[in-house]
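Sequence, please.
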């Protein structure tokens, strides 16, 4: 099969790249080893009529007008601001930690200035730049809040202690002195009106784009004659694990439908930092705005083995990635882009932004 560009992966990275290149006149063919498009953002209606995310909740948020404008070509949006509660003892408390969290947890009645003063008093004042996630958390909220909200959750999610993770992981979660209980504060916080899968279908609907599912690149690569390959899978797999495997965390999703329960929990997502084996429960109808006499939920169990979801941010892993990245830079006719190919803990908008940039660069080097 002759094609200008073969793209491996039908998620955000691959589909975004495909659309940009197709609109610039390049014939693009995408393949994915899964049976569907959309990658981990794939959504579908379950047997009970509720729209669910099989690979866990995907909440769209971005400060990038460029990314938002691009995706808005393929979907209408419904406004949605994500809110998360954490179960600490018998209480459900807002996370990120805010004024409400601290007052409810400790039986206080602090105003914003009082919360700021409280955090200043309890935080662990550390010298120099934070090197680990433990440094970030302790210097922000102190040891008690660290133990109640962060250490156990981190251990479950990553299989590592806070002290073993790069500072950037914990830095993603702010601490607030006001009552803002939104998980994100980005300019654009929306959900695709008809779901992510429908958005991908529209993105891939172009005469220059074709795609196949249930195709493994490593088994079928000789079937395709492409001028260029865009690879969005794990970078270590591409190079046959030459330097050893890059560590990834995986997840097991346990879905459940509750036919006679109109509402299962107070917020769309509830985190379980301590007691349970799972990290969180998400109730989908609270995200999609659907009405239904029942409800569908998912519990997430972090795993060390399985499909790669999260690159593990540690200095030694970054050093190993750099060895693979050097091979990637030297690989002729191949572009590497996406969370797994770039070994980055990207959000959806960050993957889209990276793909838009790489696609523009690639389009300039290809002859249509």
């Amino acid at each position: 099969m002759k094609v200008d560009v073969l793209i491996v992966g039908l998620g955000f990275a691959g589909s975004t790249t495909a659309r940009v290149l197709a609109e610039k006149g390049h014939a693009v063919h995408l393949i994915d080893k899964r049976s569907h498009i959309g990658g981990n953002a794939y959504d579908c209606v379950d047997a009970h009529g509720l729209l669910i995310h099989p690979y866990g909740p995907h909440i769209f948020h971005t400060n990038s007008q460029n990314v938002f404008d691009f995706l808005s070509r393929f979907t209408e949006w419904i406004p949605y601001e994500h809110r998360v509660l954490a179960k600490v003892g018998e209480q459900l408390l807002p996370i990120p930690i805010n004024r409400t969290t601290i007052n409810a947890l400790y039986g206080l009645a602090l105003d914003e200035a009082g919360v700021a003063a409280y955090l200043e008093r309890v935080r662990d004042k550390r010298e120099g730049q934070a090197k680990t996630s433990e440094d970030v958390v302790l210097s922000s909220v102190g040891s008690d809040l660290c133990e109640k909200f962060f250490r156990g959750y981190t251990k479950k999610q990553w299989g590592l202690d806070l002290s073993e993770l790069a500072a950037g992981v914990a830095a993603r979660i702010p601490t607030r002195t006001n009552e803002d209980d939104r998980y994100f504060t980005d300019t654009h916080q929306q959900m695709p009106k008809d779901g992510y899968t429908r958005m991908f279908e529209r993105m891939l609907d172009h005469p220059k784009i074709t795609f196949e599912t249930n195709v493994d690149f490593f088994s079928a690569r000789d079937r395709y004659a492409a001028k260029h390959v865009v690879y969005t899978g794990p970078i270590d797999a591409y190079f046959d694990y030459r330097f050893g495997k890059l560590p990834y965390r995986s997840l097991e999703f346990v879905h459940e439908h509750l036919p006679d329960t109109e509402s299962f929990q107070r917020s769309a997502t509830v985190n379980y930092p301590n007691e349970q084996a799972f990290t969180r429960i998400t109730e989908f109808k609270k995200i999609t705005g659907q009405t239904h006499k029942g409800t569908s939920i998912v519990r997430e169990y972090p795993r060390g083995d399985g499909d790669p979801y999260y690159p593990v941010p540690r200095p030694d892993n970054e050093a190993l990635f750099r060895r693979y990245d050097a091979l990637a830079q030297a690989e002729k006719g191949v572009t590497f882009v996406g969370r797994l190919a770039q070994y980055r803990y990207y959000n959806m908008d960050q993957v889209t932004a990276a793909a838009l940039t790489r696609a523009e660069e690639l389009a300039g080097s290809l002859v249509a």
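The chain has three domains: 2-37+204-247+312-365, 84-171, 248-303.
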